[in-house]
Amino acid sequence: LKCEDFDRLFHLYYDDQLDEAASKEIKAHFQECKRCSEKLEALKSIEKVAKDIELQEPEEGYWESFSQRVRNKIVLREKKPFGLKVKSLFESLTTISPSKLKLAASLATLVLVFIIGKLYIDYRIAGLEKLRYPMSTKVTIVPPQVSEEKKKEFQAEENKIVSQKKIEARKVEKPPAKVEKMKPAKEVGAGLEREIEQIPPAAKEERMADMMKAGPEVTTEAPVNTAKMAVAPKETSMAKPSEAFGIAKIEGVTEKGKSKTSKIAIMAEKTYPDTTMKKIGYEIIGMERVGYLSENDTLISPDSLKKIIEVWKDFIDKNPKDPSIDEGYQQVAIGYLLLGKITKDKSEIENGIKLIEKYLKLTKTEQIKQLLKKTEEELKSSKKK
Amino acid sequence: MEDLMVESKRDLVDSFDDEKLIFEAKKGNLFSFEKLVKRYQKKIYYLAYRMTKDHDAADDIAQETFIKAYYSLQKFKEGYGFFPWIYRICMNLSINYLKRRKFVISESMISPQMERKEAVGFNPLDILIKEEKRIKIENAIEKLPPPFKAVFVLKIYEDLSYEDIARALNISKGTVMSRLFRARERLIKELRGDLN
Predict the structure, then answer these.
(1) What's residue A266's pLDDT?
(2) Is B41 on the interface with A (CB under 8 A)?
């Protein structure tokens, strides 16, 4: 018999719960083993002393009155008025016990988990919403308040150009006259902040008429805060409806109250050769505003990323000389970097690398070159992983 | 005349055994129940006192045991024995009390007995050593977790069998054995050095 076996059985031996054979083995062991014999002696000693502990007698008369007190309590409880019963129930509810504490703790934990979960879900949704609608702004385009004098001045200038064009048309053998650069719209009306580089006179005329017809405010679907919009539309054509791109700056206030400027890729206003423009406003690609990407926007969905990349790629292809082109390169590069991180799709990463290489040749800005190179390296390293 | 009738009823009740008294008490005879209380009050009080080491708590628990028993008399099954039944009530109340109570074991709870013993007249040094040992053992028992303590108290002071302890505490025999084993192991571990 080992000491471990003794430890397991000795108290059964002490309580005389073992059969004869097992008892003999235990006896033989503790007679040989000093440690185990001491242990058994210790148990004997403890229990002997414990048994000998004398109890203090209660004060005199305690036992005589005990049963009487019990009886009185029973009688009292039977006669207890309803109010007192309610009170005792309330007391039992308000007293603290371990089981009640456990119950309260588990309830508190549940509530806490629910609150944290709700906050987390709200946070995630807010993050996604922020990417989808980064500014949560109300885009308002204010038509110009054109004074009568300015209107006349503008009209006269228009007429001059039209008559000049008519003369040119008659003189077929002569080369067409160069279209004069128009006055920027912001000079005409302070409310509308935009610059139109080249625009045919007929379209200008139509737009002017339309501006006058339009109400004080034209509002897009975007909600919440007001914002100014400055648009630089590119290359409009009279021959067919144009879908040229432009970049719109939106200055607004975020939901947290911080003022922020964001840019969106938009389509320039459509121009039609035969109808007057009914609408002053800007169509946004795919009827959706496109968020401005940063390297930290890892919560964005791959589909949204692809859409944004497509918008910018299209913009770059159609507007190779646009001053905002560098921004386009940068956005496409960031888009592919994020797409690589999120989807880990090698073909997408390869597409990104190819495109960045192409843009590296096109861009002339050193800063953008460096940024593109850095992104390309990151994409290459993620491809290896 | 009424007093005489009450007295004669009490005398009659005194001669009844537990089952008869319970039968009468079930019908609402408080005298019969009072008789049962008188029969077991000391045992129940001391059991509660062994568990709590506090007179006031033991008094409350003992009274509450009988009151609870009175209101649950209809549930009592004849033939099972009144004492083991109230034993169980008392132990449950004691364990619940101990779980609720914040343990502060002060020497003052034990010291009055020490003073009393000194008056017996043995060698004061022997008494002192013996008393120190007793105090340490009492403190160690006091520190046992209530479920272990209940098994230990019933085994040592009431000398109940494993089966009776299991019945009294409404637990299995295996649980009784393991709790008793663990209680003893704890006591030995804590007191071994002091005993030597």
Answers:
(1) 47
(2) yes
Handedness of CA A104, A109, A112, A114 (dihedral sign): negative
Q: What is the mean pLDDT of each run of 10 residues along chain A (385 residues)?
A: 82 86 87 86 86 81 86 77 70 72 91 94 78 51 57 75 72 48 41 41 48 42 39 38 44 49 45 34 42 77 84 83 80 88 86 89 85 88 80
Give the A-side interface with B, CB within 8 Å.
7, 11-12, 15, 17, 38-39, 42-43, 45-47, 49-56, 58, 63, 66-71, 73-75, 77, 97-98
Q: Is A236:A299 a contact under the CB 8 Å cutoff?
A: no
What is the residue type of A336?
Y
Find residues 158-177 of chain B whose CB sits inside 8 Å of chain A. Answer: 162, 177
> Is this complex's ipTM strictly greater than 0.90?
no
When scoring A55, A57, A102 by the number of chain B Cβ atoms within 10 A, the one with the most, hence best to mutate, is A55
- Is residue A195 within 8 Å of residue A232, measured between CB atoms? yes
Chain A environment of B133 (Cβ under 8 Å) = 49
Encoded tokens for A264: 């969106």
What is the pTM (predicted TM-score) of this model? 0.45
Contact status, residue A334 vs residue A295, Cβ threshold 8 Å: yes
Residue of B nearest to A40 (CA): B188
Q: What is the DSSP string of A293-335?
A: P-TT-TTS-HHHHHHHHHHHHHHHHH-TT-TTHHHHHHHHHHH
- Whole-number Cα distances in Å, A281 to A142, A271, B167: 10, 11, 88
pLDDT at res. A234: 39
